[in-house]
Specification:
Blueprint lengths: L2 E9 L2 E7 L17 H13 L24 E6 L2 E6 L5 E2 L7 E5 L2 E5 L5 E3 L5
Antiparallel strand pairs: 1-2, 1-3, 3-4, 4-5, 6-7, 7-8
Amino acid sequence: MRINTVTASHFLSHTTFIMGVPSSIHMTLIAGPNGAGKTAVAQAIRLAIFGDPLRSLTKKNELGELKQHGQKTGIVSVDTDLGVCSLSLSTGKHDPLPAAPTRCWPTRSIQTCSSPSRTRASAPRSS
């Protein structure tokens, strides 16, 4: 999956944020001083694609805590080669990608994956 644009409005430290990635670029590096909002960009991408935050929120209605203080609305959106996905911070409404990607993460020597149906499978161990 290729990300074309990341957009955030009233999200954490960003009033309005638009990051376009030219098609000629094969890798993007996000750098800046402490407190500049680098992690917020990563969280916006995860929220828009998967609908769940990096931060530990226990309930969907806590998404409002990710809006800038005093703002009534907030949204994160990612435009990819598979389509556009977004999440409203006000309502919690998630518009996923038409073909949702699989998430994989390593756990010791086993790689665990979850599909959009939220099932988990383990890959065989390598010797």
